[in-house]
Amino acid sequence: MTRREHFIIFSAQFLPNIGGVEKYTDNLARELVRQGYRVTVATTDASAPAGRCTLDGGVEVVRLPCFPLIGGRMPVPRKNAEFKRLWNALAAQRYDGVLVNTRFYLHSLLGLRLAKQQGLTAAVCEHGSAYLTFGSPLVDRAVVAYEHGITARVKRYRPDFYAVSSKGLDWLSTFGIQGKGVLSNAIDADAFRASSSGRSFREDCVVPEDALLVSFVGRFIPEKGVDALIAAMDILEKRGVPAVLVMAGAGPLEERIREAHLSNIVVAGRLDAPDVAALMDESDLFCLPTRSEGFSTSLLEAAACATPAAITDVGGVAEMIPDDRFGIVLADARPETIADAIEAAACDRERLARQGACARDRVRDLYSWECTARAVIAAFENACR
After folding, report:
1. What three-state secondary structure class fits 305?
2. What end-to-end distance do the CA atoms of the chain give, in Å?
3. Closest by alpha carbon to 22, among 287, 234, 273, 381?
4. pLDDT of 64-103, one tens digit each?
5. Per-residue 3-state assignment (H helix, E strand, C coil) for 62-118
6. Residues above pLDDT 90, as percent of the chain
7. Cα–Cα dist 128/133, whole Å
8. CA distances, 164 to each of 67, 83, 96, 209 (Å)
9. Phi–psi pair at 140, nearest 5 degrees
10. Three-state DSSP class for residue 47
11. What is the pTM of this model?
């Protein structure tokens, strides 16, 4: 009897922190365990105490000490005694595949170093399609320089590069990288919709029955297009369009949203997964004028609930919305463009319903975690040839 294969996934951010990479790592790890593999997630203590634990379902998690810079968005390894103890225990085990999410964290270099020590070629998965942004031109220029610098260090380990979408794969060429293929983001569509808490946001947020319920789910950060969305709702309020935006999430721009004092925006705060499913299920339209995505998890969640999206053409949007039968691809993220799209949706509810049904069928057929896990296993096997 051969030993069970052991995979390790490096992800600087992980649950309970909420984000696309965190959800991707968690769901992929759980699916690999369901398929009979042993899986360890190596992350940081940016959102939970350092140490080891095993999640329900059998995924092992090791949280390494870090300095949670920029509000935890950029965790940097803190190589104290606890770090060394945990790292030595990790490195003492034998792995059959190393997956690194994503290329621009110092934490990612740990995964590449471990792979090299064990004679493995790591798989690095890209989760974006544009440079990181922090809403400051000066900081963003420094971020561009940092991304090129860290990517140059990553390339020295000669990993195989992948992305969660075709757009992400194209984006890698910015750094002189030829990607190997797509390890798509995914969702268990039926299970997600069935997980709904049943909470009525139309009732809780006092959204009139005749108003279009528009949802936003994500971090309140510049790259998600939060400022443009606020301005768009201001335009719609002045036009008298019956639409209410329910914003679920948290982040540094939350105060800016509240200070806008718009009657057609409700901040629902950070929601757990069952409430997110309930919000998506009740929404008429999901709106995300984001600047950069690998393959938006929220887009997949909306589709799972038969809720069409109005979203910018980033990441996996072209794959999920190949034409206007499946949703609305925004030409740009200007407030006027967003407002026009929401107003048009409010005037044609039947078309929205058709788009939602098509999106639901597409996500069920093409974007399951079983398919993505098989692609990851194939990536590990190809690295060994």
Report:
1. coil
2. 23
3. 273
4. 999 999 888 899 999 999 999 999 999 999 999 999 999 9
5. EEECEEEEHHHCEEEECCCHHHHHHHHHHHCCCCCEEEEECCCCHHHHHHHHHHHHC
6. 90
7. 11
8. 27, 30, 21, 38
9. -65, -35
10. coil
11. 0.85
